[in-house]
From TrEMBL:
It comes from the Eukaryota. Residues 1-24 form the signal peptide. Keywords: Membrane, Signal, Transmembrane, Transmembrane helix. The chain crosses the membrane at residues 441-467. This is DUF305 domain-containing protein. It comes from Triparma columacea.
Length: 483
């Protein structure tokens, strides 16, 4: 009989197209082997030993991975090597999400009933927001299930899950710190020294600051999925499956609502495309969207090469890095050949600036792949290239999101101003219609067609989804755990 480890390990590490359900390690327990849970839809669950229905507290350690994906995805200790995983949370058990790792800066966790929370103008888990479809009156007493935000062991709100007190669950204190510089934000890289600073409420605090979020899913009338997301960046959501407080089985085997897009709300930001990951030659670069730009003369997309290496020799790592830079520089130049907007220069600015920002992010991802990001040959003390690149990725990703929002508000598609399919062949493209030919990168603002939703809804109906329990969720089905 094959071991669970032999079955799961390759899939958890490499098959990003499949969803993996994870539950964090239980308090006071040692990490054990992964247990596989198979749902009727063949989902896998990585559940470290120790987190069971009788647990009081379970813990997820959180970090961000920027290499090999579109923005940066959350990674959890219970699911090593899996980016943007589906998590499993047992109802009635407190989960602590430790955002101690310095990669968490600019990525404060949030929780919502639909993808991307506030970014898409949909309901989040808050004391005054009842779970959809339950008819709960919990909002009247500030008693709806909600996360609680902590600095070290100090809760920063006045909301309590039993209700009857306040509605502040600590987010307004927590989130602003994640926009601070690294040295002030805290985390392990802050070192042993104490760094005085003032938070938004003028209360002196010190660094390092062990930021953590605690969430207990207590509403047993709601069996559906929820989503974790980043309060600053769109496109980083992942699914959370609720698990039975009796046997740990998945309460709603159907993945609903969909991860990409949502079935309600008026989005404040363009809908992202999820699970874009490196493939082919660019896997060595840690980038996405560059494969068609690698060949000689970039498959006709650019008139020349941008890295001149004739007669020079490099070590293997530097040679790969050079090839990556050459491809991404062509991608930027190609994407910046545009027809200017006739009535609004700001639209022209955005069409030109987004590829420029994308190139900076791609360059940083490629540098982070190499040893040089942490091993400067000059040992120069005044520039930390790893920190520099993380800041570029985080800040310029946010700026791209804001610029694409402007295009969305103007009802103009990203890439719609593209005027050349190649340097030799101009194509007739209106400045207000169409899409770029460049491969997808970062945030796509392609609207999900009504037909897509119709097919999805029909599929759910055929599966008997809409005939289930509270909140439009199918009745619980037992999920077997192999011995």
């Amino acid at each position: 009989m094959m071991t669970i480890k032999s079955i799961l390990a390759p899939a958890l590490l490499f098959n990003l197209a499949l969803f993996d359900v994870c539950t964090g390690a239980g308090t006071g327990s040692s990490k054990g082997t992964l247990k596989q849970v198979i749902s009727p839809f063949f989902k896998k669950a990585c559940t470290p030993d120790g987190c069971v229905p009788s647990s009081t507290v379970c813990v997820f350690d959180v970090k961000l991975v920027a290499i090999g994906n579109a923005i940066a995805y959350y990674e959890f200790n219970a699911c090593p090597g899996v980016q943007q995983p589906t998590l499993g949370m047992i109802q009635g058990v407190e989960y602590r999400f430790n955002q101690y790792d310095p990669t968490n800066i600019m990525h404060p966790l949030g929780y919502a009933y639909y993808t991307d929370g506030a970014h898409q103008n949909v309901d989040e888990l808050e004391p005054k927001i009842a779970p959809p479809g339950t008819g709960s009156t919990c909002a009247e007493t500030n008693a709806c299930q909600a996360p609680m935000y902590y600095q070290d062991e100090t809760y920063q709100g006045d909301y309590v899950p039993t209700g009857g007190v306040g509605s502040d669950f600590g987010l307004d204190f927590y989130e602003p710190f994640f926009k601070y510089p690294n040295f002030a934000w805290g985390g392990p890289d802050a070192g042993p020294k104490t760094i005085p600073m003032v938070n938004p409420t003028n209360t002196p605090v010190t660094s390092p600051l062990n930021w953590n979020v605690r969430l207990n899913l207590t509403d047993t009338t709601f069996l559906g999925d929820i989503f974790y997301f980043c309060h600053i960046h769109i496109g980083m959501s992942g699914r959370v499956k609720q698990l039975s407080p009796v046997d740990g089985s998945i309460l709603s085997p159907n993945d609903f609502p969909p991860l990409e897009g949502n079935l309600r709300g008026a989005p404040l930001y363009p809908a992202p495309t999820y699970k874009i990951v490196s493939s082919g030659q660019e896997t060595e670069c840690g980038t996405v969207g560059l494969n068609s730009f690698f060949e000689d003369k970039h498959n006709g997309k650019c008139p020349t090469n941008y890295i001149c290496t004739e007669g020079l020799t490099f070590n293997a790592e530097a040679e790969v890095f050079n090839d990556c830079l050459d491809a991404m520089n062509c991608a930027m130049q190609y994407s910046m050949i545009i027809v200017p907007n006739q009535t609004n220069p700001l639209v022209t600015f955005v069409h030109s600036m987004v590829p420029h920002h994308e190139n900076a992010i791609q360059m940083c991802k490629s540098l982070l792949v190499t040893e040089y990001a942490e091993n400067d040959p000059l040992k120069f003390p005044d520039l930390d290239f790893k920190a520099l690149c993380w800041n570029i990725i985080n800040v310029q990703s946010l700026q791209i999101m804001e610029m694409l929002t402007y295009l969305d508000a103007a009802d103009i598609a990203e890439g719609s101003a593209k005027c050349f399919d190649s340097p030799a062949e101009a194509i007739s493209v209106s400045s207000n219609t169409g899409f770029t030919n460049q491969e997808p990168f970062l945030i796509s603002i392609v609207t999900f067609a009504a037909a897509t939703f119709a097919v999805a809804v029909a599929s759910f109906a055929a599966a008997g989804y809409f005939t289930g329990g509270a909140g439009g969720v199918a009745a619980a089905k037992t999920v077997e755990s192999p011995a």
